[in-house]
């Protein structure tokens, strides 16, 4: 685990052993446990990976499982500024929607660290998958206009008639100490995007992060809020739930703080006063179809139901007589 200065590490460790700062028994114990695992796995007999299933990597079956994992792990933190006026699930058929935020069209940001490279990557060229933008485009009605702007200004928002907005912001990829943060804030321009968009349009904010981050200053202006964690390559798992093909069911795996000054904070602490407690998570129900033209779009289905009822009554009459 010393990738960049392993030579110095070996020299320093050797010095410490020779000068009795570290006992050789301690080294033997550590190496022995590592070797035991390797022998148990058969790595000395078969040191190379089995390539017979390499064509299965990234298969559609695997992606389906990953997509299911995404939609089941999403946590709905807020749904409507008032309890009787939920925003989610979103209608698929509206004239015009806005998608904003630095994480809306970035597979690297969706995947986080330990993806392709140690610290992850930015952009859509590192691996195959579905960005949230592409997932939305393939989910909404073909007549719905989707406008994507990473950081729209107030003037643009006021001059366009959006039915609602989806804002996708969060953290940049990291692993280990590269992710250490005394502030736990979202990456810029996330805060300004939330403030600009949610003050002008009904908005759902999706947080892409590996942990809870500061959201308390913005939560009052947000209509709906989703913790998506790191959904990886299958952005369609997010839209499955945002648009009601499946319901939200996920729960917070850890407490969501108000400010970093409260940390560390855990269930049972005398000072436990979270923004959202451990295990919190709102739920929604799946819907068959939603549309602003539901009365029109529903007519074919109504006709089918009526025909089936008449047929049922006809045959019921035959058997009764």
From TrEMBL:
> What range(s) does the Glycoside hydrolase family 3 C-terminal domain occupy?
74-283
Checking SUPFAM superfamilies in the record gives: (Trans)glycosidases, Beta-D-glucan exohydrolase, C-terminal domain
Q: Which UniProt keywords are listed?
A: Glycosidase, Hydrolase, Membrane, Transmembrane, Transmembrane helix
> What Gene Ontology terms describe what this protein does at the molecular function level?
hydrolase activity, acting on glycosyl bonds
Q: Which residues cross the membrane?
A: 301-320
Q: Which Gene3D superfamilies match?
A: Glycoside hydrolase family 3 C-terminal domain, Glycoside hydrolase, family 3, N-terminal domain
Q: InterPro entries this protein is in?
A: Cellulose_Degrad_GH3 (IPR051915), GH (IPR017853), Glyco_hydro_3_C (IPR002772), Glyco_hydro_3_C_sf (IPR036881), Glyco_hydro_3_N_sf (IPR036962)
One of this protein's Pfam families, by short name?
Answer: Glyco_hydro_3_C
Q: Is Nucleotide-binding found in the keyword set?
A: no
Q: Tell me what this protein is called.
A: Glycoside hydrolase family 3 C-terminal domain-containing protein
> Which species is this UniProt entry from?
Ilex paraguariensis (yerba mate)
């Amino acid at each position: 685990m010393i990738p960049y200065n392993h030579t110095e590490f070996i020299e320093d460790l050797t010095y410490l052993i020779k000068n009795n700062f570290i006992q050789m028994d301690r080294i033997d114990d550590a190496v022995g446990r590592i070797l035991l695992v390797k022998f148990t796995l058969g790595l000395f007999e078969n040191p190379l990976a089995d390539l017979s299933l390499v064509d299965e990597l990234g298969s559609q079956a695997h992606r389906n499982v990953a997509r299911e994992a995404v939609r089941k792990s999403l946590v709905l933190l807020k749904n409507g500024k008032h309890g009787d006026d939920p925003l989610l699930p979103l209608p698929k058929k509206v004239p015009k929607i806005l998608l904003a935020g630095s994480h809306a069209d970035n597979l690297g940001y969706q995947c986080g660290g330990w993806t392709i490279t140690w610290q992850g990557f930015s952009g859509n060229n590192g691996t195959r998958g579905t960005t949230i933008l592409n997932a939305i485009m393939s989910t909404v009605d073909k007549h719905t206009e989707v406008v994507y702007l990473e950081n729209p200004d107030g003037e643009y928002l006021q001059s366009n008639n959006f039915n609602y907005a989806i804002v996708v912001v969060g953290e940049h990829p990291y692993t280990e100490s590269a992710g250490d943060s005394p502030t736990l804030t979202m990456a810029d321009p996330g805060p300004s995007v939330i403030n600009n968009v949610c003050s002008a349009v009904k908005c759902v904010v999706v947080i892409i992060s590996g942990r809870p981050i500061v959201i308390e200053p913005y939560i009052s202006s947000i209509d709906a809020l989703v913790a998506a964690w790191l959904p990886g390559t299958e952005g369609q798992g997010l839209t499955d739930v945002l648009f009601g093909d499946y319901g939200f069911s996920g729960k917070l795996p850890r407490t969501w703080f108000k400010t970093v000054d409260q940390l560390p904070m855990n269930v049972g602490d005398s000072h436990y006063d979270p923004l959202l407690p451990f295990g919190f998570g709102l739920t929604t129900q799946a819907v068959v179809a939603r549309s602003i033209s539901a009365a029109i779009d529903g007519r074919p289905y109504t006709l089918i139901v009526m025909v089936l009822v008449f047929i049922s009554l006809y045959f019921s009459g035959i058997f009764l007589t």
